[in-house]
Write a structure and sequence with these properties.
104 residues; mainly alpha; 2 domains; 4 helices
């Protein structure tokens, strides 16, 4: 969804290229490879947050690049939102907010 070029541009290295790279089609496999010491990676904070917080991963640079991507809740417009769905959405938002606070 985003590439090293996105991050390199954000840190002022536009035009630089990563010549050696591995490509994973599943983010969790990439995270596992980085935890195993097989290289560095780019990851969304929401996916790598717990591994960063508990020390399994380290962020070598404290620069976060904005990708323009986000997370969305999608529900049917034909159905009214239930209390259970509203509670779930509130819980997810709270969990993400707590993780983001810990990463700062």
């Amino acid at each position: 969804m985003f590439s090293w070029e996105t991050w390199l541009r954000e840190v002022g290295l536009s035009g630089a290229q990563m010549k050696v790279r591995h490509v994973f089609n599943e983010a969790s496999l990439c995270i596992d490879a980085a935890i195993a010491g097989q290289g560095v990676m780019l990851a969304w904070q929401t996916l790598a947050g717990d591994s960063l917080i508990d020390g399994r991963l380290k962020a070598p640079f404290r620069h976060w690049a904005k990708t323009g991507f986000g997370h969305y809740f999608v529900t049917s417009p034909a159905r009214r939102e239930t209390k259970v769905v509203a509670a779930f959405k509130a819980w997810v938002r709270d969990e993400i907010a707590q993780t983001m606070r810990q990463l700062q």
